[in-house]
Amino acid sequence: MENCVVSGRLPPKSPQDPVISEINWFINNIYQPACLKYQKLSKLTRTISANSAILAFVFLSYFGLNTAFPKLNLFAIQTLHDGYDFNMAIVLGLPVFLVALIVCTRQKLHLRHLCLAIILGPRYNPKFAYRKENLLHTLPFLQVVLFLSLFLFCFTQQMVAVAGIINVIVYVGTYMVNRLFGYTSATTRNQIMIHNLKRLRREYEIASFNCGRFELERVQADAFASLFQLEKDNVARLDKEIMGDHYKVHDSAFNIIKGLRK
Predict the structure, then answer these.
(1) Are 48 and 105 in contact (CB under 8 A)?
(2) DSSP 31
(3) Is 86 helix (H, G, I), strand (E, B) or coil?
(4) What is the Cα–Cα distance from 101 to 253, expressed in whole angstroms?
(5) Through-space distance between the first and last CA atoms of the chain, rounded to whole angstroms
(6) pLDDT tens digit sequence for 181-235
C-alpha cells in the first residue's frame, strides 16, 4: 500500500492581496461593527419584550382570577408578610419573577457600576469603570425589580391591573421599536453578509492557489465581481426589509385602531 502525503488545508493568502484586503476591509470596517451594534440593541429590546410578556401574564392572571372568582379574596392582604404569616397568593407568583430574572441574564448586567453611580452620584467617574451603554443593559433587570417590589409591598387590585396594562404596552412598544428600526433583521443580515464574505474569501484562496499571472488576474476579476454582487444584493435586501418592516408595523397599528372602532 502506497503512503499518501496529506497536506491538509490550503494556506491562507497574504492580507496584502488586493481581493483579500478588500474583503477584510468590508468585514472589519462595515459589517462586523454594524453586527455588534445591532446585536446589542436587538438583544436588549427582545429581553425587555420577553420580560414584559412574563410580567403581564403574572399581573393580568391575578386580576382575571380575582374577577372570575371574587370569593378567593386574593387582595385581602396587600404585602408579602402581614406580621403573622406569608401571603400565599404572592408567594405562588414569585417563581415567575425568577424566570424573568433568568431572562435578564441574556444581557451583560454591570450592576456593580450601576450601584456605584447611584450611591456616589456626581463623584462617580464614568471613565473609571462605567460606560453609558452599561446602563441600557441593566434596564431589563430594573424593570423586573420595580414590578417585583410593587408585587411584594403593594398587592392591590388597582395596582395589579395598572401593572399588567403597563407591561402589555411595553411589550407592544419594544416589538414596534425593534421592527421599525430593524435591530433583529439588521443583525441577521450583517451576520449572513459576514458569512458570505468569509466564504468568498476562502473560495478565492482555493481558486487562486498556484495560479499563473494571467489566470490569477482572471480569478481576481471574478472574485471582485462576486464581491460587488454581494454588496448589490445586500443593499436590495436592506431596502426591502426597511419598507417591509414599516408597512407591517403601520398595518398592525391601523388594524388595532379599526378593531377598537368596531
Answers:
(1) no
(2) I
(3) strand
(4) 30
(5) 83
(6) 889 999 999 999 999 999 999 999 888 887 877 888 899 999 999 999 999 998 8
Q: How many CA atoms lie within 13 A of 124 on its CB side?
A: 15
pTM, to two decimals: 0.78
- Residue 213, C-alpha cell as written in the block: 499571472
Residue among 116, 147, 114, 118 at smallest CA distance from 132: 114
CA distances from residue 9 to 13, 69, 242 in whole angstroms, order as listed: 12, 70, 40
Distance CA 81, CA 11 (A): 68
- Residue 86 phi, psi (nearest 5): -80, 145
- Residue-wise pLDDT for 55-76, tens only, equals 999 999 999 998 888 888 888 8
- Specify the DSSP element, H or E, that contains 113: helix 111-120
SS3 208: coil
Residue 236's closest CA among 178, 202, 189? 189
**Letter string b/e over residues 220-233, b meaning 16 or more CB atoms within 10 A of that residue's CB:** beebeebbeebeee
Kindly state the DSSP code that residue 85 receives in the 8-state scheme. Answer: S
What is the Cα Rg of the chain in Å?
27
